[in-house]
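Troubleshooting entry. Yesterday's outputs looked truncated, so today I'm pasting the complete records for two proteins to confirm everything comes through intact. If either block looks cut off, that's the bug. Protein one:
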Amino acid sequence: RAFTLTPLTSEQEAVVDDALAAGGSLAEQLAESQNIPVTRKDMATLRSTAWLNDQVINLFMKLIDARSQAAVDATLPKCWFAQTNFYTKLAEGPSGYAYASVRRWTKKVDVFAKDLIIVPIHCHGCRWTLAVINFKAKCFEYYDSLRGSEGRVLEHLRKWLENEHNDKKKAPFDTSQWTDIAWKSGTPQQCNGSDCGVFMTRTADYLARDARLDFTQADMEYFRRRMVYEIMTTALLP
């Protein structure tokens, strides 16, 4: 479905300017949601050309999750959002892939009752990408705004899904007919070296809205400022 971006009002812009202003204590807490605090130092990662950090991304994902949980539109996908260190714990520890490292992360949620599992990936420790387990389409998807290789990400998530079903449902889960898709076209493309986190978080937002991925590099400054306001108010704009 189409999603139309609306400009921030002058009052909203003033909130953003204050949150991004230099000076004051970098340790000052500006926002908090679901035990994830964001300080002035964290918020500064939303300034132009800065790289988004984990705190900003994790709180934003919590806001998308809250919207998903409260959605009155039954046609929107039901989603589960992993935190930024989920994949790192799952597949990038000293021993490689380790389901036991994240086994308890889903003890309060049935991921098999969801439509989408959305997983931020700190790719090679230097940029943000997104992986998605799509139950309706029966596929594992990878979104990279620089269109790089997915490596073993989808392989590891396939294995995690099978392990998760064995652990929580006490039965095998057959993914043999599922496909892997690393999107190279038809997905927004980054034109600089600093906006990967913004592309990643907005891809997650759009997928959870069931919206067309039609934003571009030209929208990044707006998205940064919009995200500041959304974090400050701990609620997503419509």
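Protein two, checking that the full record survives here as well:
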Amino acid sequence: MQLFTNSSRLPAIRNLSLLPDNWLATSTLQKAIRRGDTETALVATAYLIEKQPARFWRRLVVIALEDVGIADLRLVEEVLLTSGRPSWRAEHGGEEQWAADLVTRLCGAEKNRDACDALVIADLHPDLARQRSGFLDYSGYQLCEVLADRDRSIAERVLAAWMITGTKRFPAFSLPDRDGSFSELLTVYDAIGIPPEVLKVARYGSTRTNEGHPLTIPLIWLLS
């Protein structure tokens, strides 16, 4: 992992009333990164690093996966690795410097929200009600066939991936609790030609969040 690529620093927070609670600060952070508003994102970062650093790093993982995704997988991987290593951060520049550097780079990165959009469509679109119900009766082998079938829609393949890995691991609004295996999902992805560096990001992501983006990112990469 490379060390800092810029000289960003967190601003001093002179007026905490601008961000009256952690929820607003977290929402501000994500929306500012999404819009490329580095100044606002760094203010929210400074607030969260001071008040709730663990919340900051959890949210940064979600932001990287949800808002940047396949547009910059190398940066996403850096966020995933750095977020889970507090001792390493302390020994290699410090918490604030890493937070400022990664947030600045996320603001400037290209964005791709397809991994998130695919989850929402698969989970909630009314036209997929039949598949959401029918796939529950499929065997693991049948679900793997759906995932590998290039003639299937993206949403159907995402649904199959979700059921292979299990909704207990990545909860859904419209799907019942179901056991599964993320390792099995990665095995299928490997078999259909997704390269190791993409699977590595998905694997790291699966250890850092229970949001479903790690299960869709390899498929979105393949279809892109």
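Both blocks look complete. Sanity check on protein two: The mean pLDDT is 92.
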